[in-house]
Amino acid sequence: MNIRGFFNLVRMDIKDVDAAKYSDYDISMAYNQVMSDAYNTLSTTTGDVLTQSKDLPVINGSATLPDDFLSIMRVVGNGSDLSPSRDAMNSNRTGCYYIVGQNMFSNHDAVSILYTSTFSPITPADLDKDFPLPGYFIVTMKKYIVYCLLNQDTSKLSTDVYKVAANAGLCNLEAAPAFRV
Hints:
Helix content: 25-40%
């Protein structure tokens, strides 16, 4: 599902399918607020919901990390794992890499990285991009975006995101039992 389709679901819930009350900008701002909070919550779990992979060309010993880069999980160069180096001088050794800001230094021609991503805010121009989270988060995210638009309490967002992640087996949390005896 793309973000435009997700916005249409939100509009159906708030009974504004003709965009008379809320513009795409209004929904984008609520979306950015809720998704940012959800990403912050998900970044504390041990699941792989926010895990991304990317191949990076290394030009003159440097590669630019993706804009949504949060933390590195694995780096592979020439088919073998690379180790983090504690200083820039050692990044020229075979099998090492070094990160400074948005740059990775390595003596390989290309590297493949597995990393944890962060949320990138959207604008109304980004509506044709894919919804960034798995489908089982759609209902929860929609609920809190509607709450945000209607100025209702969104304080339980983190708890609900944890529940969805736990029920999907994406973190160390145990799913809450459906009933108690």
